[in-house]
Amino acid sequence: MNLDDLPPDDVDHTSFSARPCVVRTALEADLGGVVSVHGDMDMTAAPAFRQAVDRLVDEGARSLRIDLSGVPFIDSSGLGSLVYGYRRLRDRDGNIVVCGVGPQPARVLRITHLDRILSVEPAGVLRNR
């Protein structure tokens, strides 16, 4: 079997990411920041994610809530970005919560044992704020 024998898929092979990533941020009144990610969290998304974390921490955020409810896929670059955020907040005695974690990201966090380091809330968990 060669590559021409494989069935077509819905992935755009002209870019690195099948689902380009959009990162949005918000700084809340209680000095907590929210980073919402939509799309694949891969090497193309890592720089935007890290810039968003830096911006919020530099603006005074003491905690971050990372919303991954729009992330169907995460790779090692995405994991590295989460660890980057964790370290930025840890250095300032802050905390980070990763919420809305879907099946594939949850599996990767579990396999890499990052779910033991980061506070992780699976998708579908409602949290009172």
UniProtKB/TrEMBL annotation:
SUPFAM superfamilies: SpoIIaa-like
Classification via NCBIfam families: ant_ant_sig
Protein name in UniProt: Anti-sigma factor antagonist
GO molecular function, one term: anti-sigma factor antagonist activity
Ranges of residues in domain STAS: 34-129
A Pfam match: STAS
Family from the record: Belongs to the anti-sigma-factor antagonist family.
Originating organism: Embleya hyalina
